[in-house]
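Practice problem: YheE family protein
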Amino acid sequence: MLQHFKYRSMFDNGQLPGWTISFFYNSKRIEGEYHPDGTITWLSEAPADEEKVKKMIHELMLFHVYD
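Answer key — C-alpha cells:
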C-alpha cells in the first residue's frame, strides 16, 4: 500500500499537465514524475513490484486529478 501519497503540478501556472509525485512504499520514499499519457519517470529507485505500484498510482491520479 502507498502511504503519504502527494502530488503537485510540475509547472507554476498549473495549466500544462504533468505532476511530481512522492510516497512511501515498503518503508522507502519513492519520487517520480507522472506524465499526461500515464507514463511515470522515476526520480528515485523504482519499486521492486513496479507494475503493481503503477496501477495504484494511476487509480489515485484518476481519483484526485481527473475526477
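Discussion: The mean pLDDT is 90. Students who identified this feature from the C-alpha cells alone can consider the problem solved.
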